[in-house]
Amino acid sequence: MAEEYDLVEPTKRTAKKPFPTYRLRSDVLAAMSRSVSYRRRAVDDTDQKVVDHVREYGFVTNQTIRRLFDIHVYAARDLLNSLRERQILEKIGDARGGTGVKYGPGPKFPRGRF
Questions:
Q1: Residue 113's closest CA among 58, 49, 68, 69?
Q2: Domain range holding 78?
């Protein structure tokens, strides 16, 4: 008798195909921590984590993103730019660059969970 463990899920792009591609669920991947040689996060999971942080603290910085996701400064920049392009976040304050730049809720910042 096979038991269902709910360890994997179809990727968003292939979920409706007859033979979808599967990935580890984010909670399973987090629980496995360093046992897994890759750390791929779904865009929705990443966005939700950033949104939750902004809700709690009122803003987020590049350094915060790097620490949350253990990524390089350029990957953090790209993530922030993506959130800004989608108007989920916007720059707050007068800082033009560097460590002083903060990002807060934008016009399309979600009211509830994604």
A1: 49
A2: 43-105
